[in-house]
Specification:
Length: about 160
């Protein structure tokens, strides 16, 4: 059984689809004609180029953001053409400068991505930028392995009273 992220509606009939293991990703165009609906593949990416095994990519400012499982768990900003704009850094021989997230979850709020390292449980706040990776802060929030669940954010005004 495989956990597959949901398709992402881009607009103008375009849909981005990704999955884990060796599935890769693709952008399709759906159009309605006189004879019904047709789907055309705009581009495809191999699993080595990009895939998101567990979590659904986020569409923000005409870019897709996700943790790519076959790209060593790097948080990635993809243009809608399927080309990486930036990826979180991997520094050869410098574990402190490397930012990979395994299969960790992520969410977007207040102009920041909250990205959880799926191995260590470290939470990193990353600026929601379409031009560069910029880490704003980090904290160790969980312990243990396989921290893959989707994160949730408690909003102001919520009450636990029943």
């Amino acid at each position: 059984m495989a956990a597959c992220p949901s398709p992402v509606a881009i607009g103008d009939g375009r849909i981005f689809i990704t999955s884990g293991y060796e599935a890769g990703s693709m952008m399709i165009q759906v159009e309605k004609g006189a004879a019904g609906f047709t789907a055309k593949k705009i581009y495809g990416l191999t699993a080595a180029q990009f895939n998101s095994e567990v979590h659904t990519p986020i569409l923000y400012k005409s870019h897709l953001f996700a943790v790519g499982s076959k790209t060593r768990g790097r948080f990635t900003c993809l243009g809608l053409d399927g080309k990486p704009v930036w990826q979180s850094p991997v520094a050869s021989g410098d574990a402190a400068a490397t930012r990979t997230f395994e299969l960790g979850g992520f969410l977007l709020a207040d102009g920041m991505f909250f990205v959880l390292d799926g191995v260590s449980g470290a939470l990193r706040l990353i600026e929601a930028s379409t031009t560069e990776y910029k880490e704003l802060a980090s904290a160790q929030v969980l312990s243990g392995g396989d921290v893959w669940g989707p994160p949730a954010l408690r909003t102001a005004g919520w009450s636990s009273a029943t």
